[in-house]
Amino acid sequence: MERKTKINAEDGKQELVITREFDLPLELLFKAYVEPEIVEQWMGTKVLKLESKKHGSYQFETTDTKGNVVFQANGVIHEFVPNQKITRTFEMENAPFAAQLEFLEFEQLTDDTSKLRMHIVYKSVALRDQMVQMGFAPGLNMAHNRLQDIVSKLK
Amino acid sequence: MNLRRDVFQAIADPTRRAILLLVASQSMTAGAIAANFDTARPTVSKHLQILTECELLDQKQNGREIYYHINAKKMKAIADFIEPFRNMWDDRFNKLETIMQKYKSKK
C-alpha cells in the first residue's frame, strides 16, 4: 500500500510535523478523534477517559492478554474546536519521558477528502530523536497483543 | 542507541552539514574543505574529526594526502531512521480511514 503519511523532522529541532490526507469527509476524520470507541479501534489501546472539550483530559491504557498493563498515557486538552483543531499534551506514564505538546489541525480538502496536520513539540532535541527511535516499539507491541488475542480465540 | 544519537548531534551543526554537502560531490582533503569556510582551520579539523568518529566520513590515504569522503551507507541509515515511526503512524491512519469509511457506509 502507498505510504500516505509524511513526517517532517528537521535536524536539530525539538519538534516534528506529521501530515496525512484522508479519503474521508472532514467530519468523519474529526469524529475518529472524538468517539472513544473509535479511538480505541485505530489506536489499538483502551480509552479509559476522553473528555473532548477545553480543559478536558484523557487516559489511555493497553493491557496484554494476561491483563498486565503494558502502556499507559494521559494528557490534557487545551483547545478543542470541532472540525478544526485540538491542542493537547501527551505523556506516557511510568516512563522517563517528559510530556509533549501536540497541535492537531483538521482541514477540509474536498467534500470527501480531508487533511490532518499534527505538530508535536518535545522537551529537547534528544528526546525527539529518542521518541522517534522508539516510536515503532509500542506499535509493534500492540500489533503483537492483537495477534495474541486472535490466536487465543482460535484455541 | 548512543551512537545513533551522536550521529544526530553531528548533523545538527550547520557547518558539519555544509561539510557533508561539500564532500558528497567529491572526496576532498582537509585543506580543500577548510578553504570553503571562514572558520579557523582547527575548528574545521574538529568538525572533520567528529564526522569521522560518527562514521559519516571516511578517510583514505592517497600518497601524502588524506582524502575525506562520504559514507553513503551511514547517510542512508539516517534517512531510514524515521521510517519505522512513519510506518507506525501510517498504519494507524490507514486503520482510521478504513474504520471511518465503514462507519460512513453504515449510516
TrEMBL record, chain A:
InterPro entries attached to this UniProt entry: ASHA1/2-like_C (IPR013538), START-like_dom_sf (IPR023393)
Annotated ranges, domain Activator of Hsp90 ATPase homologue 1/2-like C-terminal: 23-151
Pfam families, alphabetized: AHSA1
Domain of life: Bacteria
Protein family membership: Belongs to the AHA1 family.
Protein's UniProt name: Uncharacterized protein YndB with AHSA1/START domain
Lineage: Bacteria, Pseudomonadati, Bacteroidota, Chitinophagia, Chitinophagales
TrEMBL record, chain B:
Transmembrane segments: none
Keywords recorded for this protein, A-Z: DNA-binding, Transcription, Transcription regulation
Pfam families registered for this protein in UniProt: HTH_20
GO molecular function annotations of the record: DNA binding; DNA-binding transcription factor activity
UniProt superkingdom: Bacteria
Domain spans labelled HTH arsR-type: 1-90
SMART domains: HTH_ARSR
Protein's UniProt keywords contain Transcription: yes
InterPro entries: ArsR-like_HTH (IPR011991), HTH_ArsR_DNA-bd_dom (IPR001845), HTH_MetalResp_TranReg (IPR051081), WH-like_DNA-bd_sf (IPR036388), WH_DNA-bd_sf (IPR036390)
Gene3D superfamilies referenced in this protein's UniProt entry, alphabetically: Winged helix-like DNA-binding domain superfamily/Winged helix DNA-binding domain
Name the record gives this protein: ArsR family transcriptional regulator
Species for this entry: Chitinophaga niastensis
